[in-house]
Fold this protein.
Amino acid sequence: MTSGSHPQGDPAETVLTPRGLSDCFTPLTTVVYTLVIFLLNIVAGVAIEYGSVFNKTTTMILNGLDVALVVGFLATTLFVIVATRTDRDHLRYRALIVYLFVATFQTIAAVGALIVTARVRNDEYLWGVVDVGAAYIAIAAVFTGWYWLLDGIVPGGAFVFPGRDGEDLVRPKFIDYAFISFNTNATFGPTSETVVSRRVKLVMMFQTTLSLLVLLVLVARLVSTGRG
């Protein structure tokens, strides 16, 4: 045995277990969340498509992803019902993961469409603001779900939440993850929370990248409008 190593079963070793989502990851909250993100993404997609001037191919791609989001929402709801009736909670996890991937791809496509499209409807600055605001809402909604899900399944939890009297918050609620996502959009990173999972750090870096791209789109349109 090498120096400094612990024998198997040494009490000094701490085995991290997932935080779990038992308090907030209920069938009802899963359906409500997917419904909220579905509505936000649909509204954001419609606002972006209506406000910006896309070519025919880009419009077809965005419309196709909107249809995929509808199918994903209906499939997730169906899986939640089946999981509830058969006591298979793992189906709800998998259904939400698939749905989040679909919603993420739809959001990426919307941001990408904004990047490649310089023009807005009637060349008005207001439509550019609407586009950017819609994209920000979609990004925040999607990544709220990722943080909510990942914090529950990552061993030991993905975040350290400060609580009252200097104690960590053991059972965070959905609003805590929405707060992290909103701050990542606005300040490009968490504020009071600490990220302790490498996988979630990568997810947060990706969200920050999307937010920066949306901000650059806004700046570019401001400059274009000023020149016009």
Remarks:
- Helices lie at 27-51, 56-86, 89-116, 125-153, 174-187, 198-227.
- The mean pLDDT is 77.
- The beta strands are 159-160, 194-195.
- The two ends are 74 Å apart (CA to CA).
